[in-house]
Amino acid sequence: MDEQTDGGAAGRHTPVLLQRCLDLLAPALAVPDAVMVDSTLGMGGHTEGVLRAFEHVRVVGIDRDPQALALASERLAPFGDRFTGVHAVYDEITDVLEDLGIPAVQGVLMDLGVSSLQLDEAERGFAYAHDAPLDMRMDPTTGPTAADVLNTYEERDIARVLRVYGEERFASRIARGIVRRRERAPLTRTSELVEIVRAGVPAATRRTGGHPAKRTFQALRIEVNGELAALERAVPASIEALAVGGRIVVESYQSLEDRIVKRALAAGATSSAPPDLPVEPATHTPYLRLLTRGAEEADAEELARNPRSQSVRLRAAERLRPTPDHLRTPRRAA
Fold first, then answer.
1. Which of 28, 59, 76, 99 is the most buried (most CB within 10 A)?
2. What is the pLDDT of residue 4?
């Protein structure tokens, strides 16, 4: 993270690949009365960039973290009714827009992963470098904590979470260590978890590849917040929210997120007709156009300005036509 001195949202957050996001969204946001959804508002950096660059655009900012929403709303107050903040998870975009009476939008921006605020607030338990309660909830008002997961899951389920969501090679050893430790007393602190991970990862591995607890903390954060399940729903729902000509830009920070985004965008950009048909029916032509060649990464200038961009993978697409009925994702029941 960048070293920041200003206590407000603007001083605590440098948005990743901001100019590239603005350039990709610009053609879609050029229409009169354009609306963009910032599905992961965070500290409001990307939204502020959009509101400054496009003086006619309205932004709906969604975030599940009440603290982030409050700080961003304060930051964006000078833009008046051009900004609307909503406390929700990004897979609820359809309901959010219905409640606001917005039938379709011209842009959707998603900046995934843990936010600057969550990393900087040590007591939230997201950072392995600081001792704190084992919480890790993006919305601290609801749901189970990381401590709940570690103290109640079966050993095999802890191992599965670490292996699948953290791609941790030593998941079984770490899970075994967690269960042994909790037999003496429930785990409550991040420092306890770091100690268990260090003991479970061989010394030779600990000397390479960064902090040994990085993958375990990532996995627990994803599990606690249901991040990948929400993202699986959110990307198709966000595409459905786009008007024809609208654009979606997504920034991912780890391979599991990027894989979900890649799959959803590629599905829309690929013909759904059987390959042996001599003529492609109009109902099977692609409804998305990819705007990036693969996933774009940060260049040296961006990395120097904002270290958080080191792992970013950016993908974008434009809606060409409505999604054909046979490819629509059924809406989840309320």
1. 59
2. 37
Q: What is the pLDDT of residue 115?
A: 65
Q: Is residue 118 a known part of a binding site?
A: yes
Helix (H) or strand (E) holding 19: helix 18-29
If you write DSSP's letter for every residue of 176-231 in order, what string do you get? HHHHHHHHHS---BHHHHHHHHHHHS-HHHHTSSS-TTHHHHHHHHHHHHTHHHHH
**Residue 44 among known ligand-binding residues:** yes
Which residues contact residue 151 at a Cβ distance below 8 angstroms, ignoring those fewer than 6 apart? 182, 186, 187
Following CA atoms 150, 151, 155, 159 in sequence, which dihedral angle do they give, to the nearest 10 degrees? Answer: 0
46 labelled ligand-binding: yes
In the numeric block, the tokens 């605020």 are attached to 117
List the chain domain ranges. Answer: 9-117+227-327, 126-225
Average pLDDT across the chain, whole number: 89
Nearest to 148 by CA among 214, 224, 216, 222: 224
Q: Considering the domain 126-225 in this protein, what is its CATH number?
A: 1.10.150.170
Establish whether domains 9-117+227-327 and 126-225 are of one fold: no
Count Cβ atoms within 10 A of the Cβ of residue 211 and give its class: 0-12 exposed, 13-18 middle, 19 or more buried: middle
In this prediction, residues 188-212 reach a mean pLDDT of 85
Question: How far does the chain reach from its first CA to its final CA, in angstroms?
Answer: 38
Architecture category of domain 9-117+227-327 in CATH: 3-Layer(aba) Sandwich (3.40)
> What pLDDT score was predicted for residue 236?
97
d(CA 208, CA 100): 50
Provide Rg for the chain, Cα atoms: 21
If you ran DSSP here, which 8-state letter would residue 309 be given? G
On whether 11 is known to bind a ligand per the annotation, the reply is no
What phi and psi values does residue 250 have, to the nearest 5 degrees?
-130, 130
- Distance between CA atoms of residues 247 and 106, nearest Å: 6
pLDDT at 333 over 90: no
Whether residue 63 is annotated as binding a ligand: the answer is yes
- The answer to whether 65 is a known ligand-binding residue is no
Give the Cα separation of 53 and 42 in Å (integer).
19
Please name every residue paired with 86 in a beta bridge, in sequence order, or none if there are none.
62
For residue 139, the SS3 value is coil
